[in-house]
Design brief:
The complex is a heterodimer of chains A (378) and B (286). With 378 residues, chain A is of the alpha+beta class. Chain A is elongated, with a radius of gyration of 25 Å. Helix content of chain A is 24%, strand content 35%. Chain B has a two-stranded antiparallel ribbon with strand order 1-2. Helices cover 76% and strands 3% of the residues of chain B. Classes of the chains: A alpha+beta (378), B mainly alpha (286).
Chain lengths: 378, 286
């Protein structure tokens, strides 16, 4: 089982249910063998897109190509992809073996060959000894493995996964996610993974696409999506951010660091700030400035940390074991969220408490601009 | 220590029900069985003398013909009910207006069954609505014989007991997870294959219930064949009434009742045995 996934091309897919537009002109390319996530809140259209790829829904417009060939005319049973359903969708009246053998029987495999393949799959997902159990006798994690084994039985080119971990508890989710990643490495086919959990998507995807209200907002590597979100929705949906409307004042090229430095006016912070970007920004353009909480440095007391330093008091400390979140109220009246990872006492000294005065600062290169225009009411 | 006490509470709670069933079900049944093995009294009633006369009379060719016809009629009516109820229940379960359709299914129960049978007489009789419309449209020249025959009996029986088939089937379809059909298709089944291989086994318990709920009352039907049936569509239920009221042969009436009960029982047990496999997997599921 090695490297035989399909390349998938989604072209201008539009789909409405009555007056509800589930997908609006979505185009997207998925490379063969990659782990691709479709991420977004519920109702954003990601599951509809998956169902269109699987053949359960027909798009109003657009094309779905597998390795350059349209599959839209094929019924679900003829498409070279298989699906792992949200609630596993195991056949309750069939045993583990029966479930895994089901697609092989439909394919017309002989009994001997079929049994051999089922054995192989049961070993592959480590369910040896559970062969004859009915789905109702299995734990959530085991059901999941049966669902995966069943979907992989006919060696599809593409595996579609519809929030496969959402029915499981948090701890199990983590370990199954790692297993899923390993399975992907082993079988080498294309995985299309639908989830609303950004953590899952960020940690396993080669590429991911962010959806909201039926539109594809941004596609890229997890790093690109996290570090330079292109829309306000992506910036606030992925991770946490301190996002403020701002106006670009001037742009200049910094030869030394090979980057553009944009000066922006951020009324909410009561300051003019510098932030780096890939290119110049038109003077006077309205956009958003954002800085991730974990990229803000926080120090106890009123200390001058250099240009761009803010002073304020801790409005609300939230302790979470390995890290703490602080809501810092600056003297200018803005609230800045700061995330601080805890290391050792030796390094950190005494902790920062509620109502303590603190100083915060970040490097211009850590902030980023979200190029979406804001309007007066925001 | 704790467990026996719990059992006692159970017995206490079950006592009223047990008493009710014993008094009004077991005892009358026992009386009927006893009567069937006694001699008939001169003016009704029985003489306390053991006898197999009643069962010997049952084997009369005329009676056997009626019994076989009853069986045949019941099977036909039950299967027709099931054939109509399956798609109907499926459609209701998948509909957005479930409550409305269920309500409509139950509405007939608000009227006495007798009145509804008379309504059918009005519809089907020679000067009835159906014939009048067909005559007026010129589709027929002579009124059709739509009533007082086996056709009318089966038609009205199906009408009467269709809701009893629809409701359990609806419950089964409603509980069914339709993503399983998607899954089956995804795994290579055709649409029809998915319905037969995956949906049908899952709603088997519903089918069993529907069969039992319709077959038993249909098999013991009495008013329907009496009111819309003719000479050639008498059922066992009618014989029993005749034997009690007209011929006054109570042992024979009892013997027929016993046979009716036994046949129903055997039928139900057979159907249930078929459904048991499904029941097991259902237990596992929950």
């Amino acid at each position: 089982m090695q490297g035989k996934g399909s390349a998938i091309s989604i072209q201008h897919i539009t789909k409405s249910f009555g007056s509800f537009k589930a997908l609006d002109d979505v185009s997207l390319d998925i490379a063969p063998g990659e782990f691709f996530s479709l991420l977004g809140p519920s109702g954003c259209g990601k599951t509809t897109l998956l169902r269109i790829i699987a053949g359960f829904e027909e798009p109003d417009q657009g094309e779905v190509l597998f390795d350059g060939t349209s599959v839209l005319r094929l019924p679900p049973e003829k498409r070279p992809c298989n699906m792992v359903f949200q609630n596993f969708a195991l056949f309750p009246h069939l045993s583990v073996r029966g479930n895994i053998a089901f697609p092989l029987k439909r394919k017309g495999l002989g009994k001997e060959e079929r049994e051999e393949r089922v054995d192989e799959l049961i070993r592959f997902v480590e369910l040896t000894g559970h062969d004859n159990k009915k789905p109702g006798q299995l734990s959530g994690g085991q059901k999941q493995r049966v669902a995966i084994a069943r979907a992989l039985a006919c060696e599809p080119d593409v595996l579609l996964l519809d929030e496969p971990l959402s029915a499981l508890d948090a701890k199990l989710r983590q370990s199954l996610l790692v297993e899923l990643d390993e399975i992907h490495d082993k079988v080498g086919i294309t995985f299309i993974y639908v989830t609303h959990d950004q953590g899952e998507a960020l940690s396993v995807s080669d590429h991911m696409a962010i959806f909201n209200e039926g539109r594809l907002l941004q596609a890229g590597t997890p790093y690109e999506i996290y570090e330079s979100p292109s829309t306000l929705f992506t910036a606030s949906f992925i991770g946490e951010g301190n996002i403020f409307p701002c106006t670009a004042l001037s742009s200049r090229w910094d030869e030394e660091d090979d980057e553009w430095i944009i000066t922006v006016d951020v009324p909410a912070l009561g300051r003019t700030l510098e932030v780096t970007d890939w290119g110049p920004v038109e003077d006077g353009r309205r956009l958003y400035f954002s800085i991730r909480p974990e990229k803000v440095r926080i120090v106890a007391g009123d200390v001058d940390l250099g240009p761009g330093c803010f002073h304020g008091i801790v409005d609300e400390p939230v302790y979470a074991g390995y890290q703490s979140k602080f809501y810092v109220k600056t003297d200018e009246g803005a609230t800045i969220r700061v995330l601080k990872s805890h290391t050792t006492y030796l390094e950190e000294g005494p902790g920062i408490e509620w109502k303590d005065r603190v100083s915060v600062i970040w490097r211009p290169a850590d902030g980023y601009l979200v190029k979406e225009e804001w309007h007066e009411e925001t | 220590m704790r467990k026996p006490r719990k059992d006692k509470a159970g017995i206490m709670l079950a006592a009223p029900m047990g008493l009710w069933v014993t008094l009004f079900f077991a005892v009358p049944l026992l009386i009927i069985v006893t009567y069937s093995f006694l001699k008939k009294g001169l003016y009704g009633g029985v003489e306390w003398e053991p006898s197999f006369d009643a069962y010997r009379q049952v084997l009369d060719p005329d009676f056997i013909a009626v019994t076989l016809r009853t069986l045949w009629t019941s099977i036909l009516a039950t299967l027709t009910c099931l054939a109509l109820a399956l798609p109907t229940a499926y459609a209701i379960a998948r509909s957005r207006h479930q409550t409305l359709f269920l309500f409509l299914t139950i509405i007939p129960f608000w009227t006495s069954s007798l009145i509804r049978i008379y309504a059918w007489i009005n519809l089907l009789s020679t000067e009835g609505l159906v014939n009048n419309i067909l005559l007026a449209l010129g589709i027929i020249k002579e009124p059709l014989h739509l009533i007082y025959n086996l056709f009318a009996v089966i038609l009205v029986l199906v009408y009467m007991y269709l809701p009893f088939a629809i409701l359990p089937l609806f419950t089964a379809f409603d509980r069914f997870d339709f993503t399983l059909v998607d899954a089956a298709r995804d795994l290579g089944s055709s649409k029809l294959g998915a319905l037969v291989r995956i949906m049908l086994p899952s709603v088997r318990s519903g089918i069993t219930t529907a069969l039992v709920f319709t077959a038993i009352p249909v098999f013991g039907a009495y008013t329907v064949p009496l009111l819309v049936g003719g000479m050639g569509s008498t059922m066992v239920g009618n014989i029993i009434v005749d034997q009690v009221q007209k011929t006054r042969n109570w042992p024979l009436a009892s013997a027929f009742s016993v046979i009716l009960t036994l046949v129903s029982l055997i039928g139900v047990l057979t159907v249930l045995r078929g459904g048991r496999k499904d029941k097991k997997s259902k237990e596992v599921r929950t």
